[in-house]
Specification:
14 helices, mainly alpha, single chain, globular, MetI-like fold, 2 domains
Length: 324
């Protein structure tokens, strides 16, 4: 690893830490910006004032804002987000530790399937531009991108769950408990979640591939007698995939943060369903913790993408170093 790349990574890490700090301030202030008394809202209007005051002191809401923020941040960095009112005082950190892997066990297979199939379809469509295959794939990808995810989920449940009885219509089994049952329980949710990412990745790959194969250096490589397969899959594909990395990162962030509909439809207790429960029950401590965790995850994915950019294209890290 050369010095320019090391400086590039260090700069990206420092920026990410700063962003996480800003997010932590925003998440902390979010509860205080909500109109009304959050404690009174959580406990109900008929709750005795002494109980409400005791709960305020328990949440340190009687302290000055800077003190409240420091106490919350210190506890959050240790994984202590308090207790959930909606779930009868259950520890939020423990709950998130249990449910975040569930969402990840859906998002990771989804992004793998979407990336592999999306890149494959995009490359084949670009190579066979204007063919019947290209036209059919384009129509299918456009339709996949436009159909609402909740409607797809309902159709899948009705066809593959209720009519054909191939897959369970709800619930979740962890892969370490029963891997075969895990595959059966995630088959429909992962397929439904893959519609949008697969369409976006395939269309972006096709566009980039068409642009790259029309470049001068590709024509020069053909003139030098280099095999066509080597030109397309060794030279053109690598350059075409650099913008695709951005799309993959965006879709992965969306899958983790936007898994709410899928988890609701298939009754899977992941982060998305936890957020919905917190919102409907006005559990502000839970909302605060979930928002912070999802935001930190998004920043972490952005950091990995920046590092990957610098590895794929040295011009990015060199231009970053000149700006310092």
């Amino acid at each position: 690893m050369n010095s320019s790349y090391s400086r590039y990574i260090i700069k990206r890490i420092l920026v990410s830490v700063l962003v996480i700090f800003i997010i932590s301030v925003f998440v902390f202030l979010l509860m205080h910006l909500i109109p009304g008394d959050p404690v009174r809202t959580m406990l109900g209007g008929e709750t005795d004032e002494a109980v409400v005051q005791a709960y305020r002191e328990k949440l340190h809401l009687t302290e000055p804002l800077p003190v409240q923020y420091w106490l919350w941040l210190k506890n959050a960095l240790r994984g202590d987000f308090g207790t959930s009112y909606a779930l009868n005082g259950q520890d939020i950190g423990e709950l998130l530790w249990q449910r975040f892997p569930i969402t990840m066990s859906l998002a990771v297979p989804c992004i793998l399937v979407s990336t592999i199939l999306g890149v494959l379809l995009g490359v084949l469509s670009a190579i066979h531009r204007g063919s019947v295959f290209d036209q059919i794939v384009t129509v299918i990808l456009t339709a996949m991108n436009g159909v609402p995810i909740f409607w797809i989920g309902i159709v899948f449940i009705w066809v593959f769950g209720l009519k054909l009885r191939w897959f369970p219509v709800m619930g979740y089994t962890a892969p370490w408990d029963n891997f075969i049952q895990y595959l059966r329980t995630i088959a429909m949710p992962v397929t439904v979640m893959s519609f949008g990412p697969l369409s976006a990745i395939a269309r972006q790959t096709r566009t980039n591939m068409l642009e790259v194969i029309s470049q001068d250096y590709i024509r020069t490589a053909r003139a030098d007698g280099i095999a066509e397969s080597s030109i397309k899959y060794r030279h053109a594909l690598k350059n075409a995939l650099i913008p695709v990395v951005t799309i993959v990162g965006i879709q992965f962030r969306w899958l983790v943060g936007g898994s709410l509909f899928t988890e609701q439809i298939f009754t899977i207790n992941g982060i998305g369903r936890t957020v919905m429960l917190a919102i409907t029950s006005r559990d502000y401590t839970m909302i605060q913790a979930c928002t912070f965790i999802i935001s930190v995850f998004v920043v972490g994915v952005n950091l990995l993408l920046d590092i990957l950019y610098g590895w794929l294209d040295p011009r990015i890290r060199l231009s970053s170093g000149k700006g310092e």
